Amino acid sequence: MKLNTARYSVILSVQVLLLLIDWVINVVSIFERNSNAKMLVMFISQDACLILALSALLLTFFSTYVFQNGLVYLLYDRFRITLLVCMAYFILTTVVNIWLLVLRWNNKEQPWNIPFFVSFIIQRFMSAIYYYYYKRAALRISDPRFYEDLDMEPEKLNYHTSQ
Predict the structure, then answer these.
(1) CA 41, CA 37: separation in Å to the nearest integer?
(2) Of 59, 125, 117, nearest to 88 (Cα)?
(3) Cα separations (Å) of 159 from 54, 135, 150, 153, 154?
(4) Helix (H, G, I), strand (E, B), or coil: what is residue 116?
(5) Angle of CA points 77, 144, 140, to nearest 5°
(6) Cβ(30)–Cβ(104) under 8 Å?
(7) Is residue 83 over pLDDT 50?
(8) Helix count (H) and strand count (E) of the chain?
(9) pTM for the complete prediction?
(10) Contact present, 66 and 146 (Cβ < 8 Å)
(11) Burial level of 25, CB count in 10 A (0-12/13-18/19+)?
């Protein structure tokens, strides 16, 4: 199986669009103070985009020659941190979004408290880490070695290099 550059370009464009949507929602949610309903829709959209982004990344993994020949551990070794960061960011984002909405619905005057503020800052910091690892994985999966029938020794393919 060869890497289809047109197909990969479309998937990469979708992945970048999903990251951009997540970033925009993170920025807009700071300034949106008028409507809890608008925030709820934005947060549901953000969580849906995170799920779609992870699905798109997994789709690219599943279409590799390495995966199709049962060498999943090679992909897992190479992209383990990215997958863990994606899952952690999704969980953290969902928790912060739910917490923010609950605080706003219960107390419109002053929704921010110290534990929430700390988790909010951690989530925003984690978003930068997520963007970095996700983009890096999306670009690295385009490596032709994942799509060609090469000698499958991990040492020769350099799949076990450091993250």
Answers:
(1) 6
(2) 125
(3) 21, 18, 12, 9, 5
(4) helix
(5) 50
(6) no
(7) yes
(8) 6, 0
(9) 0.81
(10) yes
(11) buried
